[in-house]
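Practice problem: predict the structure.
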Amino acid sequence: MSIPRFFITRESVEGTVAYLKGKEANHAVNVLRLNTADEVILFDGSGLKLSCIISKINKIVELEIEKKEEYKHPFELDVFIGLAKGSKMDLIVRQLTELGVASINPFISKRTIAKTSDTSKKIKRWHKITIEAAKQSGNLILPTINQPIKLSGIVQKITNYDKVFVFWEETKDFPVANQFDNKLAIIIGPEGGLSQEEVSLLKDKKNVYVCSLGLTNLRMETAAVSASAVVNWINLSGKP
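Answer:
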């Protein structure tokens, strides 16, 4: 059985003692039925990992910290993805968190189908999803989820990256990175895809590569996960 994992804030840590409160404490005691002397792992979503033993159980669960670790991703992978409708975005956020991306950046383009209202409420829900996905996957760093921007806003940002991969169903190119990069970005279009004009606008930059994900057309949620996994693997394989 794997060791249970719980999300905390750094304010819940005092020296060699940590505290579980609220929903996390309730889940530990009333759902998982944990007892004193049981092992748990705590994380704060910014790289802190605490290996602990439960010492006291009341409304607040007190834990003795046995080991403290700080983790950093070996490189930064930001995902820019067309804002999806319905529950698709929930699934995308969950799976990209499992893959360890640094940020998720919804954008609005010519063929965006999803409604762009009430995004603040959606971002709060997506943040909760990242916590649950991180617990399940062992990811110690939660992705930042930003407010949706227009595609033109991405054009201004992409010069900050070593490489930017635009995955587009209308190309057959498979450019492969042959070196490790510290800062990467992926761009995936909305349900309706990116237009030729939008792709031309993006690939005008020297660090942008327009890529195919294979011989078939993928749903955007499939493309987001596939592209992130491929870029993760290729970049790590080139790490010195």
